[in-house]
Amino acid sequence: MFAPFLIGFVVASLLTPLIRSITSRWKISRSLISIVCLLLCYAVIFVIIWFFGSRFINVVQEQATRLPEYYNRFLEPELLKLSDKILASFPDSRQTIEELLNSLESSMQDAIRSVSGMIISLGASWIVGFPGFLIQLIFTIISSFFFTLDYDTVINFVLRQFKPAKQEMLVEIVTSARTVIWKILRVYALLMTITFFELYAGFTLFKIPMAPLLAFCVAIVDILPVLGTGTILIPWGIILLILGNTSLGIGILLLYVLITAVRQFLEPKIIGSQVGLHPIVTLLCIFAGAQLIGVIGIFAFPVIATIIKKMNDEGTIHVIH
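-> structure tokens emitted (321 positions)
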């Protein structure tokens, strides 16, 4: 219910240090700088979403409409060849195997149609939900403007609701959280860049068309914890193996193993070095956060652990007595 206002406050909190720096350096009106920074921030966000998001959705939906065609042209003939080999190997159980294979083929056709229809319907469902999204977006933008213009007033009002001893702790928590969030965002941008170059090098080595675009799309999927590169690379590799393209199928699967190994090795070490946690603690926070509250927990738990550690080191709180 209050997500637009929470997001608006987070945007204001992240932009405030930049606004203060510009205001103090060039002695320009804070209101003017706040408006300019917010406009530039939202302009960059909208351009990125429009340029990359719209193209990605168009490519996905276009390929989704052609899934049944791909199945009929490429996958079904190879499955029929595989079925003939299986039947030739077990002539005594021909009827049973034929029924099983026909059932499997029917299930695969239904699955292909279902996936294709689901992806295509996402566009329609997005259009239906667009008015509600637009209302939330408008409130988010408006609230971020008010929070940014009166950030100090809002913060002072909140702080006055606490005792002086608690005010220092609250300020420390907010400051630490803002710093850690920026660091984690930079870390995941770095991990996404590394994954992109790994994919680009692999796709180029395998002579796959449109290597840069495919690498970028898979890297975007990889940064989403629920999905990952396996969502695309594993089915892709298995289908290539079924189609008889053994070398490319094995190459795609090995590329997935390499990317996963690098990601699992680098993620806790880089995040730990940036936020000041031991890699084991970072890995524990990421795993526990994902298990307990999903995607948000992957980002939130390392932030919380870092804040507690920092405040304990500085003597603001004492975790162990």
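The CA atoms of residues 87 and 95 lie 9 Å apart.
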